[in-house]
Amino acid sequence: MGEDIPRVGGFSAGLAVILNGEDGKKNLPKTRLLSCCDDLGQQSVERTLEYVFGLRNRSLNSLTGRVDRGFIHSVIRNDFSRYIVKFNDSYSESDGICYINGKNGNGPDIIGLEVSSICGDIKVIKSPFLIESMAMFSSARASACVWKGKWMYEVMLETSGIQQLGWATLSCPFTDHKGVGDADDSYAYDGRRVSKWNKDDETYGESWVVGDIIGCCIDLDRDEILFYRNGNSLGVAFQGIRKMGPGFGYYPAVSLSQGERCELNFGARPFKYPIVGYLPLQAPPSKNYYVTQLLQCWSRLLDMHSVERADHSLAQKLRRVKRFDSLEEIFHPASYAICEELFSILEADVGTTEYMVWGPLLSFMFEVFGLHAPHDYSSLDKVVEVMLQFQGSHVLFEHILNALSCGCKIALLILTECPYSGSYSHLALACHLLRREELMVLWWKSPDFEFLFEGFLSQKTPNKQDLDSMIPTVWWPGSCEDASYEGNMMLTTTALSESVSKIEEKHRDLCRLVIQFIPPTNPPQLPGAVFRTFLQSLLLKNRGAERNIPPPGVSSNSVLVSIYTVVLHFLSEGFALGDICGWLKSCKADGGFLHRGGEQSFPVHLFLKSDPHRVDISRLGGSYNHLSKLHPTFDHEMEVIQWDEGCMDSEETRVTHSTRQKPCCCSSYDSDFTRNFKVPAKYLAKGSRGHCSSIPERPAHVTAECSDGSLNDEITDKPSSSDQSEPEYGYRQVHHMKPVPKDTNISTATLREEELLDDLLWLYHVGLAPNFKQASYYMTHQTQSISLLEETDKQIRDRACGEQLKHLKEARNEYREEVIDCVRHCAWYRISLFSRWKQRGMYAMCMWVVQLLLVLSNMDSVFIYIPEYYLEALVDCFHVLRKSDPPFVPSTIFIKRGLTSFVTFVVTHFNDPRISSADLRDLLLQSISVLVQYREYLATFESNEAATQRMPKALLSAFDNRSWIPVTNILLRLCKGSGFSFSKNGESSSSSVLFQRLLREACISDEGLFSSFLNRVFNTLSWTMTEFSVSLREMQEKYQVIEFQQRKCCVIFDLSCNLARILEFCTREIPQAFLSGPNTNLRRLTELVVFILNHITSAADAEFFDLTTLRRHSQSPEKINRGMILAPLVGIILNLLDAINSEDYQENNDLLDIFASMDCSDTVQYGFQYLLDYNWDGSFRGEAYVAKYEQLENFLSLLTCRTVLQDDKVDSAPLELPEMFLLQRNSDKCYQNLIEDDWLGSFYFGCLVPDGI
């Protein structure tokens, strides 16, 4: 009967205990055979060893002595080796390949790059074949060619730019401009341009991303070349390639643009995605199968030992019937013997170590440790302890760390594996290994320490195809998709969010280990020194990374994002460093630095030191070298500036972590608001049309930190002891600010939280800002695409006929695909960038930084040394939070509850001459332009002392050739509601009466400033109207409306309307500027009115104006019409007439006489008649409209009479533009940006132009 039992693992008789994945602490999917017993039910050592080593039943003779390493070693050498060799399906040599270089000893042929084939400059960054192009275009071939059979090699992308990967013969010439795929008999794939190349390019494949594994395959039996991306076939790229003979085959070849990096694997390591039927060019080690089976023996031994030690009911029953003896007798000698055999194999052929580690050894360690939690830490520790006792173990673990680091770069997020997907398993294993001091020292001493650290922090960014598989079902409010899609998408985003959170948690664990690590150096270093050095090297390496074309060698964006996320969590949520947290200044285990409140401090020497990693950073006052010569700051180098949180805010607006009302990042309203948006459907129906994942609650310790009883309940300003006057651009004297000498030298060696904040801002500027810009693009494009889709659906319902219906359905399919793509991208950005704790940390970061900037703005000698990225990161982060989707907090409290200082800073520094960069000043000015468009933010400006005191005059002086567009938008918004034809019901409820009064007072009190401002407005409006007319004529001459020209016309027309509204406000609030004194302003104003009327009503322009549909995306056709420019002209005339009718101006300049004396009287009268004939019913009704119409009609009658009396008629002709009005075309940078960037300008969060006054 025993012979009928199936043979499992070499056994044919006895008791076999099968335990599946539910039998112990580990969740193992495989089935394990535990034991085989003799006739008495007693397990023998011989039978156990037969099971461990996979031998036939009863193949081992009875033992006569104790089990030791020598006996186990003899079993491995004599019995196991003979048994395994029968099943060894080793790699067989093929005659279809030719190696240029010789063999490496007795090992396989080593394939590398053929040095003589290199064209350009290719640098090996890391052995064996991580290469980078240092020239504009570099190419190289491998040292092997194939002419028969099926072959492949893999390329891991370190960058995702222009690279041409494929195969080429010797007849393919490499030059500075041509490479693989640019000649006959050379074939390449380029995922950046999504093309295949063979002399010419054709669309092929998918776009690639950093971390992709590209499999380059050639089938010379079918004469085909095909490519794979992460194991997925991209299809046959080339067919019918030319047959080649022995020694004249196809070489693996690559061409890289400057700065592009990739790692080539011809078979020196196991392929990540091997393709069935295709062979590696470099043969695997002959002992590969033997080592794999040997490690399987060790795995079985560990499984048995773990169950032996487990508190498992079945194991206890087996012990009670004496059928499960202890394995301690054989566990240690067997483990040592297996490890000894492994090291002897590796020592015999050192060249195979890398392959063995990256292949069977790494797989074995993952099998022992487990890919998912809970992990088997105990079994892994046993393996590591045994291995570390061998002499070659350090080399082995160096390769293991290399393999784990590389695995993080290429790991994909797979939905079915969530939440333990992506790089989680590699990070978890690495973190556990590096908890051993010996291995941490080994890693730190490695010359590749920083390279591997960056690898651990890498995460793959998904492309369109990846997102399709990660988020298979898509839903958005109003969609016609299946009703179940909403729930499915919610589950999907939740699962992906959990995966991202677990990966981020492991990143923090790894960085925490590095921070805690004390390197064995003399003199000794403090904890945090290694982490600080890494951050400094990262900054030095990535100088210029923010440029449009970054220099070679910069880090992957995912590395910068990951380290930013780690540092943000440390500063916002706390370090959780346990007993050793005392090394970090003021570190509390239960709260974050950014939420601490109370007294703040900052070491000024961070700005003033000439460290190599900082000296090239641009400062607010210019370059460091320039500033250090003109403004040396030796007195401040040893100072730490201290101040009280909120000291720069007024008593009424102050909200700090110590006041009763908490900031948005720590208030109880935060949690309430979060809970309101836990159901995405309800939120999305109200807000933007995207999908958001569930949002985790705010940790309790953050609120507790803000309510700490040790902090002051209220911070009040003390009287200033300084007799000096208030600085010009410092808004308010800083109270409670005092410079404090640095303690000792030990403080500079200690990693301070302020240093991490400095690094955080730089990481945000270089790493996060581009991602947020991309997220903003997809969110905006999603809204537009949904609108187009809904409009198309409506047209299909209304017009169900013939060919037009067919085109509409085709357009609908395109719009639907765009919407789905945008929804997936937006969902991913919400998952990866907009988690709740990150928003909290970003808000607290903005609070901290803006307070720091305001404090230092009172110290001229230090303020100019502040890096520019402080200001850029602050402004960008502020607007990201303001526009975040889902919203962080309601807009009504966003500024009031913690960021009133931001308003103070932007209004006091947008024209600060200490800021040398005009782009930075524009950044602040555009922030004001955006914020004042919203009533709730405008109210904050109205209650801000700095805004009311400084902004009106500063805006008038800032109206110049560079900044006139944002200044116009700001003035327009402040004056909104005061113009003719603005509202059917009179003045808009959103106007700012306060700022209108302040502007009027500023213009009256400083006549010189107002005169200069008025002159610039005249000139600018003349130029914009000329540009508008020219643009219309260009389209008219070409008889077609090009999108760029249409957009240009829209922009210029809106700008002209806005400028005309500004003049209308001036005539209403300051009519004396035109009616009193010299008539220069009045004459220029009237000439400008006639000039505009002439362009709008002239026959050629008017006809084409009517034929051209001037509209932007998601804008109604009636948005653009003549009334937008005609209304302020009417308002100007009526305002002047009203002023003339008052007693104050009856004896001054005669408006009627100015118009009558113009040379083009017919044009003037025609223009006024056109204003009378225009249909204003849509703007005014009732008595108000009648009164204004009669007033304008009476003026035209008087003008006609005056003209006849003067008997000075001239032929009607277009008014020539006076030379003094002309501005050089294309000289305005802001204007050019508006045209080229579809009205968004250079500032991506947009500068919205109001509808009118």
Automatic annotation (TrEMBL):
One of its GO terms (biological process) is protein ubiquitination. GO terms for cellular component: cytoplasm; ubiquitin ligase complex. Residues 79-271 form the B30.2/SPRY domain. Gene3D superfamilies: 2.60.120.920. The keyword tRNA-binding does not apply. SUPFAM superfamilies: Concanavalin A-like lectins/glucanases. This is RING-type E3 ubiquitin transferase. The lineage of its organism: Eukaryota, Viridiplantae, Streptophyta, Embryophyta, Tracheophyta.
